[in-house]
């Protein structure tokens, strides 16, 4: 069993704590409880990577740009009802790299991502176009974001309209209104980026894509999804549809 725990710890890049480790071991047929998992991980010196504490600023006024149609409904029952997006930045030896993503809130899957050396509306419009292409949607989607100028720009708003997507925005200064996407960025940085030193933007892009697709979407278990990955959850929904 210790060999299995070591293998899972390595395979999952040291991102699994005792609960996800327990789920993996049960899937492999081991008869074990969470306390024994905790003791074995401690004995083996295995510690999961943890995000640093993050303080969210309190908003002083309600958004007047677009209504918050999501209203913290973070667990929709169907795919392609609610998407959320945001931008984060990664330090490289060539300067900042900006990453934009869109998640399906039902499955927590990162359905599209795009990179740029500038955090502009071209980046957010491009990642939206990729999401539409991948999901082949025909309207009936609500897209939620913050009030950044990349999302309030004419080009991005026009792209929403062209694809029949309704816009929704967080209240000013309230990151908790977009908590799922914020949580993804925290996982990305605490489980991967913070342990790297990227000499070039190309190195960062390659490593981040490796985190998103083969790991986060395909393998990483989510407690909210019943201890399965986003892709596995989508397959489960498709089988029961």
From TrEMBL:
Residues 72-238 form the Integrase catalytic domain. It comes from Vibrio casei. GO terms for biological process: DNA integration. One of its GO terms (molecular function) is nucleic acid binding. It holds the Pfam family rve_2. This is IS3 family transposase. It comes from the Bacteria. InterPro entries: HTH-like_dom, Integrase_cat-core, RNaseH-like_sf, RNaseH_sf, Transpos_IS3, Transposase_IS3/IS150/IS904. Coiled coil: none annotated.
């Amino acid at each position: 069993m210790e060999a299995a725990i070591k293998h899972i710890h390595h395979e999952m890049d040291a991102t699994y704590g005792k609960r996800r480790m327990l789920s993996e071991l049960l899937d492999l047929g081991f008869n074990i409880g969470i306390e024994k998992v905790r003791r074995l991980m401690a004995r083996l010196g295995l510690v999961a990577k943890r995000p640093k504490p993050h303080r969210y600023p309190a908003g002083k006024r309600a958004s007047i740009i677009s209504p918050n149609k999501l209203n913290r409904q973070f667990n929709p029952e169907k795919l392609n009802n609610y998407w959320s997006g945001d931008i984060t930045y990664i330090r490289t030896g060539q300067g900042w790299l900006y990453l934009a993503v869109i998640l399906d809130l039902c499955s927590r899957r990162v359905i599209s991502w795009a990179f740029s050396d500038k955090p502009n509306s071209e980046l957010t419009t491009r990642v939206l176009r990729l999401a539409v292409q991948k999901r082949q949607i025909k309207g009936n989607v609500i897209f939620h974001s913050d009030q950044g100028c990349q999302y309030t720009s004419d080009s991005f708003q026009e792209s929403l309209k062209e694809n029949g997507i309704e816009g929704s925005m967080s209240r000013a200064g309230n990151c908790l209104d977009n908590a799922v996407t914020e949580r993804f960025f925290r996982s990305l940085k605490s489980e991967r980026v913070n342990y790297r030193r990227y000499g070039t933007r190309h190195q960062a892009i390659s490593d981040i894509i490796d985190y998103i697709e083969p790991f986060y979407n395909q393998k990483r278990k989510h407690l909210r999804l019943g201890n399965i990955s986003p892709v596995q959850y989508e397959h489960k929904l498709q089988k029961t549809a």
